[in-house]
Amino acid sequence: xxxxxxSSLRRSKNLLPRRGYSSDxxxxxxxxxLGAAGGIGQPxxxxxKLNPLVSNLALYDIAGTxxxxxxxxxxxxxxxxxxxxxxxxxxxxxEGCDVVIIPAGVPRKPGMTRDDLFNINAGIVKxxxxxxAKYCPHALVNMISNPVNSTVPIAxxxxxxxxxxxxxxxxxxxxxxxxxxxxxxxxxxxxxxxxVNVPVVGGHAGITxxxxxxxxxxxxxxxxxxxxxxxxxxxxxxxxxxxEAKAGKGSATLSMAYAGAMFADACLKGLNGVPDVxxxxxxxxxxxxxxxxxxxxxxxxxxxxxxxxxxxxxDYEKQGLESLKPELKSSIxxxxxxxNQS
Length: 342
Ligand SMILES: NC(=O)C1=CN([C@@H]2O[C@H](COP(=O)(O)OP(=O)(O)OC[C@H]3O[C@@H](n4cnc5c(N)ncnc54)[C@H](O)[C@@H]3O)[C@@H](O)[C@H]2O)C=CC1
Ligand SMILES: O=C([O-])CC(=O)C(=O)O
Fold this sequence. Notes:
By secondary structure, the chain is of the alpha/beta class.
């Protein structure tokens, strides 16, 4: 993966030197992972250590980070790795950050919805975002902690109260839905997965996850309406598929770390001025009547450069869009209310 990231950067963007990872022409970029000792945090820390766009990797958790940081720091790539543990070290982890990735919080067990995590994770996200507002108010925030449909609005409210909110810098990470949609589509359509693209819009829970298979490329003419319904359902239930398979030992961690690393890489490329970086993310939006919505966004030097529209939808997708709105609306409102009450 490292080699492919490096060679694609060399080919298209000329950002890297021919040898080694440090370069005068590659900007210094500090990335923090909050929740770095967890199931997602550890492989995500490794993948970010493999990313040559990162010069400084800060690994923060309430416990266990010295070991993770020592381990990852031995990997012979560009970035300096530092572990931070406990709230009094959070300031050092955050100072100077360009991108903060948040996979802190509890995961689901079988039988739970993502919303069942709200009571614990809302408070965790609120306190981490309060610190971000203080110590790195200009960083891009990649929110992984669930329920994303509520934690992103919580973060926005915290930043608004602190006077630091920039709607272009707050991202709910919905990349795993895209990763799944691509994998499942490629399997069903029998096309090489590397070239597949599928936008996924809406939110990140159950029916709020709306893959737009009518816009999938390459076009597949061998898929029936039943196939599209089954692919949609599998994408919406992808998280639950993993939760059940793990049988009480958590939710997706490895595929999430991959998706999180890909999304953070896209943010870093945008910051570095790479043109035409487009990914799906749950952001402040006016493309529907809902204040936050996942869709394709163009990333640039200041975060979101443009929230792209939905494009033409099939009748099935139009129906899915209308059905998801009430649930997504109430999850957003729940987050906003929590942030303003507590
Ligand atoms: N957006 C998405 O697509 C996905 C989101 N998730 C969510 O990511 C979150 C983390 O999942 P896992 O890594 O599997 O859980 P985990 O329990 O393995 O790790 C969570 C880590 O967060 C740490 N933590 C707790 N409170 C903290 C605080 N105040 N500050 C810093 N760190 C803190 C814990 O010590 C632990 O190391 C969950 O909420 C899960 O639902 C999981 C998969 C996909
Ligand atoms: O399902 C979960 O609880 C974790 C998650 O968000 C996912 O895997 O998409």
